């Protein structure tokens, strides 16, 4: 087992344990609030994993960072990593040609794209960040990205709320 996989396993299990009450609360909230019979709590999407092997990625049917909580299950199972390139569909253009090397590592719950303003970046820049990560990743880089992820998510949520308030005032 590599140090990266050990970090994923220990970190994923610790986060799942600590966040299990939140996972349950979000699942109940989505189930009660969906109003769609049989709609389910989870959204399923096929993505390319390590070496291009497809797997079904699960997220909650809600918006925001809470939707990603079920991804911790994929981290523990070894289908994803805490840190890695953005998960993409197997047929996505970034999984072919030069971009195919992104499939040499597991997709990540977070990565350079997450801490660099994910929604504000042009796609080409996200692609370059992912490929740079694939070519140069090491445990220290993963720890630095993990340390910067929560503040980046908080900044985005604060900016989104401020924008919504400004729109209501205007």
Number of helices: 5
- Rounded to the nearest angstrom, the distance between the terminal CA atoms is 55 Å
Order of SSEs: HEEHEEHHH
Instruction: Indicate the low-confidence ranges by residue numbers.
Output: none
DSSP strand tally: 4
Helix content: 40-55%
Strand composition percent = 5-15%
What is the CA-based Rg, rounded?
Answer: 17 Å
Largest sheet, strands/sense/barrel: 2 strands, antiparallel
- The mean pLDDT is 88
Q: Which descriptor suits the 3D outline?
A: globular
Oligomeric grouping of the chains:
single chain
Helix/sheet category: mainly alpha
With strands numbered from the N-terminus, the spatial order across the biggest sheet is 1-2
Q: What's the short version?
A:
The chain has helices at 3-34, 71-77, 112-115, 123-136, 139-169; strands at residues 42-48, 54-60, 81-83, 108-110. With 170 residues, the chain is mainly alpha-helical.
